[in-house]
Design goal:
The complex is a heterodimer.
Chain A (H helix, E strand, L loop, with lengths): L3 E6 L5 H10 L4 E5 L5 H5 L2 H18 L15 H26 L2 E4 L1 E6 L2 E6 L2 E12 L3 E3 L12 E3 H4 L8 E5 L3 H13 L2 E6 L10 H13 L3 E4 L3 E7 L2 E6 L4 E4 L1 E4 L3 E3 L31 E3 L10 H15 L14 E3 L4 E6 L2 H6 L4 E7 L4 H5 L6 E7 L5 E8 L2 H13 L4 H6 L9 H10 L7
Helix pairs in contact in A: 1-4, 1-8, 3-4, 3-6
Chain B lengths: L2 E4 L10 E6 L6 E2 L4 E6 L4 E5 L4 E6 L6 E2 L4 E6 L7 H13 L45 H7 L20 H10 L17 H8 L20 H16 L2 E9 L1 H13 L7 H15 L5 E3 L4 E3 L5 E3 L1 E3 L2 E3 L2 E2 L7 H16 L13 E5 L18 E15 L2 E15 L5 H16 L7
Parallel strand pairs in B: 12-16, 16-17
Antiparallel strand pairs in B: 1-8, 2-4, 2-7, 3-6, 4-5, 6-8, 9-18, 10-11, 12-15, 13-14, 17-18
Helix pairs in contact in B: 3-4, 7-8, 7-9
């Protein structure tokens, strides 16, 4: 007789919803976490970074106060206080997860878990080891910053997000390696705080997963506010030089700075937890799973960044729901990996769901493109945030929303409408027949779709 | 606002519709999908529904009146006491222009849809409500408007529409309309059975030709107007006519030889056994006017013209196009005419006079290897000949066992018109022609 029906390893945005949902469905559930409940997302990633970005946004708004008719004097940044605020936000959520575990009866186990059999986990703590068994084990150990030989953090000046997000020492200058979401969010934050920022990216455009013309809006906005870019060149090596650092690019260029932030993607936490020992297949460290999140070993499931299909907190959460509800025998549709929104929260924000134009072309789709600039949107103009635009790809034959791309002040809040349209299979015609409140940023989405159909009245 | 409710067009070729029965009285309220009236042609009856709620203010025509599609038959509105004087004036003007309700046969068929206004020399409107105005779509559903002018992309409104709501995503509906998938037959896998695009796609790619149903599936096919007419007429025939059956077996040796000779000598001539049999029946009818006759309560009418109806199967029903003056045509001419009529019948393009008023009917299931069967009389004819297959069978000739060709026919007779002896004598004559086709030359 197993100790638990479900044992979840890791309490991040994949693990803790899995545990709570399992408990809600009446399964006897435990969740093991070696650090803080909420994982990277709540403690060192998504949530505290949004707190920091809000400080950055405010700082930039205050700098423009005069244009709104307000005099506030000289802006001073109290960097440690900015960091402390974000820590407070994180700890509030960490406590929230603890409360939810209690409310739904999830047994919380602290320690480092290691699988010794498909139904057995050994949990190591300072006080010793504990062995627990479960019918279903969901591995949700997540991922960490990816490093390379010669590009490794030293914990002092060469950092990953993990150190940077808690450090109360404001860098004078920083080289951000990688222009993905994490890199650009930190670049935006540091720049707004008054740090000199250089972004290095091997590809020719920032945010390589976004529609290039949307990404260009972000890059130009950053450049205008003083961020330097080194695009199209990869990093060869990062060295300490005196009190600071030196970054060498593949073409021999040397960039000196006080700090370096490594933001070159993530690597899964799949080593040392017994996966190989019990026979779970991995692919370059990531764990392949089927539509029900099962690994090749019966009884062992995996969700989140650890899996070959992960990489985003909300993907992990959805995977967790599917995994647990299938365990409980509930009817639940597969995760639609083609309909996962991607968001970057700098200003201007950038978000998309569905296909880019390149992907639509590769898929052989015939589509119409519709765009609408926030320049022509009343709410955006009033807010003094008229950068960016909405772009949609509408299937020519059926009016399906193939892809939607938003760059602008509220892009990450807006993209949900397109996500819903796609998952509910709402077509372009229904979308423009939906009355959007005026004035709102959301009108721009309706107008972009109308533009694709050739019926926009504001463009 | 009050407006006209018009005679719906039951089929694209319908010229006149009869108001069979008012189902909603003057002053009565109706709700969406209420049947206002039963209307029909001789071939089909249909229930004329409304798509909105309102009140039937006034009937403009009476039961039994025949008017063209698009002709105002009632005034409907929001309240029984609405002012309809302008509409009545417009209706009077229309009546004066085309007195359809008084002399429908003589009246020129009014244009159901008027020519574009620009094409006309801008006439000053006589009445405040122009007759040319189409009924507003959001106000009323009329058979004509939807089935002819408005293609419903969901395919679940219009002919054979179902009342139950189909839960499907907009995209699934668009794909279904494009691929011609009937959403009523698609199983939804979404929440609550909601049909998604994938469901439509997989329904579309399901093995074709499967008219069979899977286990546990129930398919409800709403009766088409044609099916209703078939049911009505056959039931009337079956219950009103005192019929009896005469079965005979014909020696088909010479008949088969006849066709073999035609095919050998005249390879370009297409002629079937049924064409040849029709010619023989026509000749036999010429000799037996009592069989080529019709019943009504006052008298039996013997017809000098021999018009033979041939039962033709359609994908969703059957129809009996008529070969007129069949006794004056040879088998090849008869065959060509039947094929032409049957072809148009399958496209639904037969005019009414091409399938009505037969004096005798032939139904042949020989091609399905049916040995023998009985058929139901198709009035106003008084007899129908059910024809089985020509079979090679062992026969005894002159004391010797040999192989012969035999065919069984069964004639259903209306005993009020055709007595047993009359029918038997007719079959004897027919046998003469079939067993010795050379007689056809005389």
């Amino acid at each position: 007789m197993a100790d638990y029906d479900v044992l979840v390893i890791g309490a991040g945005p994949g693990g803790y919803p899995a545990a709570i949902r399992a408990a809600q469905l009446g399964l006897n559930t435990a969740c093991v976490e070696r650090e803080k409940l909420g994982g990277v997302c709540l403690n060192w990633g998504c949530i505290p970074s949004k707190a920091l970005i809000k400080s950055a946004e405010l700082a930039n708004k205050i700098r423009k106060a005069d244009s709104f008719g307000l005099s506030v004097g000289e802006l001073t940044v109290d960097y440690p206080k900015v960091i402390k605020r974000s820590r407070k936000v994180s700890s509030r959520f960490e406590k929230g997860v603890r409360g939810l575990f209690k409310k739904y009866g999830v047994t919380q186990l602290s320690g480092t878990a290691r699988l010794t059999a498909p139904d057995t986990v050994v949990i190591a703590t300072a006080d010793g080891e504990q062995t627990v068994t479960a019918k279903h084990i969901i591995v949700a150990t997540g991922a960490r910053a990816r490093t390379f030989p010669g590009i490794e953090p030293d914990g002092e000046r060469i950092l990953t997000y993990r150190e940077a997000i808690v450090s109360e020492a404001q860098p004078e200058s920083v080289v951000v390696l990688g222009a993905g979401a994490i890199g650009l969010e930190f670049a935006y934050f540091f720049n707004a705080m008054g740090t000199k920022v250089t972004v290095v990216e091997g590809l020719n455009e920032v945010l390589p997963l976004e529609e290039p013309e949307c990404a260009a809006v972000v890059r130009k906005s950053f450049a205008k506010s003083g961020v330097s870019f080194e695009l199209g060149r990869f990093v060869k090596e990062v060295r300490r030089k005196g009190d600071g650092c030196e970054v060498e690019l593949t073409d021999g260029t040397l960039i000196e700075s006080q700090y370096v932030l490594i933001a070159l993607g993530i690597t899964p936490n799949s080593q040392g937890i017994g996966l190989e020992e019990i026979g779970v297949t991995t692919d370059r460290g990531f764990v392949p799973v089927n539509a029900s999140m099962q690994t090749n070993v019966p009884g062992v499931l995996a969700v989140g960044d650890l899996t070959t299909k992960g990489g985003l907190a909300h993907t992990a959460t959805r995977q967790a729901h599917v995994a647990v509800e299938r365990i409980a025998g509930e009817h639940v549709t597969d995760v639609d990996y083609g309909n996962i929104p991607a968001c970057t929260y700098c200003q201007p924000q950038i978000a998309h769901v569905g296909m880019t134009e390149a992907q639509a072309q590769a898929a052989g789709k015939t589509y119409k493109v519709g765009t609408f600039p926030f320049m022509a949107n009343g709410k955006a103009q009033g807010a003094g945030s008229a950068e960016g635009f909405v772009k949609v790809l509408v299937d020519e034959q059926y009016g399906e929303i193939l892809g939607a791309h938003i760059v602008g002040a509220e892009a990450t809040e807006m993209i949900a409408e397109f996500g819903l349209a796609r998952s509910a299979e709402v077509t372009a015609h229904h979308l423009i027949e939906t009355v959007h409140a005026h004035p709102t940023y959301s009108e721009a989405m309706m107008e972009a779709v109308a533009n694709a159909l050739g019926v926009s009245v504001h463009i | 606002m009050a407006e006209f409710y018009e005679m719906p067009a039951i089929s694209p070729t319908m010229e006149m519709g009869t108001l069979v029965e008012w189902r909603v009285k003057e002053g009565e309220a109706f709700t969406p999908q209420t049947v206002l009236a039963e209307v029909g042609t001789d071939k089909a009856n249909m229930e004329a529904e409304v798509f909105d709620k309102g009140v039937l203010i006034k009937h403009l025509i009476e039961e039994g009146d025949e008017v063209p599609p698009g002709y105002p038959i009632a005034i409907v509105g929001n309240a029984a006491d609405e002012d309809i004087t302008a509409l009545l004036a417009a209706f009077e003007a229309k009546k004066a222009e085309a007195p359809a309700d008084e002399a429908p046969e003589a009246a020129p068929t009014p244009e159901p849809t008027p020519a574009p206004v620009a094409a006309k020399p801008a006439p000053a409107p006589k009445a405040p409500v122009a007759m040319a105005e189409k009924p507003s779509l959001d106000r009323m559903w009329q058979g004509k408007t939807l089935s002819a002018d408005f293609q419903d992309p969901h395919g679940d409104i219009g002919y054979g529409r179902v009342q139950r709501r189909i839960v499907a995503s907009p995209l699934a509906r668009a794909v279904a309309a494009d691929k011609g998938v009937d959403l009523r037959h698609v199983t939804g896998t979404g929440h609550g059975g909601r049909i998604t695009r994938d469901d439509v796609e997989s329904a579309k790619s399901a093995p074709a030709g499967g008219t069979g149903l899977t286990r546990g599936e129930t398919k409800v096919v709403r009766n088409s107007p044609m099916r209703k007419t078939i049911a009505k007429r056959l039931l009337e025939s079956h219950s009103d006519i005192p019929n009896f059956f005469l079965t005979a077996t014909f020696d088909m040796g010479a008949f088969v030889g006849w066709r073999t000779a035609i095919k050998a000598s005249l390879p370009d001539v297409r002629v079937s056994y049924n064409d040849m049999l029709t010619a023989c029946v026509a000749r036999a009818l010429r000799a037996h006017p009592q069989v080529n006759a019709s019943w009504d309560a006052k008298a039996i009418t013997q017809h000098g013209q021999i018009d033979i109806g041939i039962a033709v199967a359609l994908p969703h029903g059957l129809i009996t196009p008529v070969v007129r003056d069949a006794d004056l045509k040879n088998p090849a001419q008869i065959g060509a005419e039947i094929r032409e009529l049957a072809g148009r019948a399958k496209e639904g393009k037969l005019s009414e006079d091409e399938y009505s008023n037969n004096t005798f009917t032939i139904s042949n299931l020989g091609m399905y290897a049916i040995d023998e069967f009985t058929a139901i009389i198709n009035p106003p004819a008084s007899a129908i000949l059910a024809v089985g297959s020509i079979q090679e069978v062992p026969v005894v000739e002159n004391g010797q066992l040999t192989v012969g060709h035999r065919m069984k026919v069964t004639m259903t007779c209306d005993h009020r018109v055709v007595d047993g002896k009359v029918g038997a004598e007719f079959l004897k004559t027919l046998r003469n022609y079939v067993e010795a086709p050379a007689l056809m030359l005389l």
